Amino acid sequence: MDVDLPPWEAAASGEQPPVLSVAQLTALIKGTLETAFPSVWVSGEISNLAQPRSGHVYLTLKDDAAQIRAVMWKTTAAKLPFDLEDGQQVICRGDLDVYAPRGSYQLVIRQIEPQGVGALQLALQKLQQKLAAEGVFEPDLKRPLPRFPRRIVVVTSPTGAAIRDFLEVMRRRWRGADVLVIPTRVQGAGAAAEIAAAIKKAAKLQPRPDVLVATRGGGSIEDLWCFNEEPVVRAIAECQIPVISAVGHEIDVTLSDLAADVRALTPSEAAELCVPSQAEVNEALDGYKVRLTQALRQRAQLARRRLDALSERRAFVKPFALIQDAQRALDGWDERLLAAMRRQLQVSQQRVREATARLESLSPLAVLARGYSVTRSVSGAVLRAAEEAAAGEQIETILPSGRLISRVEEVQTESTKKPAKKKA
């Protein structure tokens, strides 16, 4: 298609303008835009964000007066170091593309960066991921706060509302703790270094503080940013004192909050977490007093009942009864012992009599008592046969009532009946 003059110039010159098809017009627009804007930087707010399974990203960039559709192909979207969200302010570099089937144009994004708060959020996410990987935010590292602290250090601005709120709550709740304020800047350039140095200084104080509070009032993310900086976060994590972080308002969450042992939503809540309520302590003490009194009364009553029960026992009612019982038992044992001894003596005597009878039955004297006698020679040998004696020999005859000394005149035996010859 040859077009010598643009339609509006042809109409001005009186010539009949050529009639263009939709495709021809779109082609002219496409060529003009893509040639005029080969690469352009655009800032705006993301809306209508869509991320289908294909990996491409579709969105709309808008400001207060206009909007433009944009697309990011999969190869570019895969390299993004941060997540896209609706409402996020970004700066995009890309080229314009006309989509002929729909007759619309769009920005093909080649590069995208967060703008303003988005940049800070990106930096915050990267630092948080780094510290989390090192275990700085591990719940197991959190330490409990002392129940009744005696010395509290507050790292904050001495002229800010945070310290006034903190001290007001402290005066109202508890007066048993000393508060030391280490003044620092809490926003702006150099504030992070001052806060980190103050935290390290507090850890070296003697006597050692019981609690450290890092706090400031609310503000924008830029105002609170020093509590997101690495030196402050590491100083809190490495502090040997239990740390309470109370930065900003309830909706504000900083990396210092994550690293601290306890996070308080506000400076006033930090004071409430630091110390107990005097009224609650007094109420608890009154309760303990009542319970202790009741317990002592119950123990006294129990002891009295036990004492009454003991006093009614026989040992206390009749203290000599036990002695008398023991005496009676002793007498009984004495009688039984004597009876046993008598029985044993009788048995022994019976045994002696029996042994004596047996001995007497075997004794030669018993034989003599029956009319017999025993004859012995001079040498003392018992003569059992007549042949053992000789005529003229002196012999001794033992009778039950005495002894006889005699001399043998003649010896006769049963076999011979002849007198024996007298020994020369």
From TrEMBL:
Molecular function per GO: exodeoxyribonuclease VII activity; nucleic acid binding
Xref: PANTHER family: EXODEOXYRIBONUCLEASE 7 LARGE SUBUNIT
Domain Exonuclease VII large subunit C-terminal, chain residue ranges per copy: 136-357
UniProt key word Nuclease: yes
HAMAP family reported for this sequence: Exonuc_7_L
Matches recorded under Pfam families: Exonuc_VII_L (PF02601), tRNA_anti_2 (PF13742)
Protein name as annotated: Exodeoxyribonuclease 7 large subunit
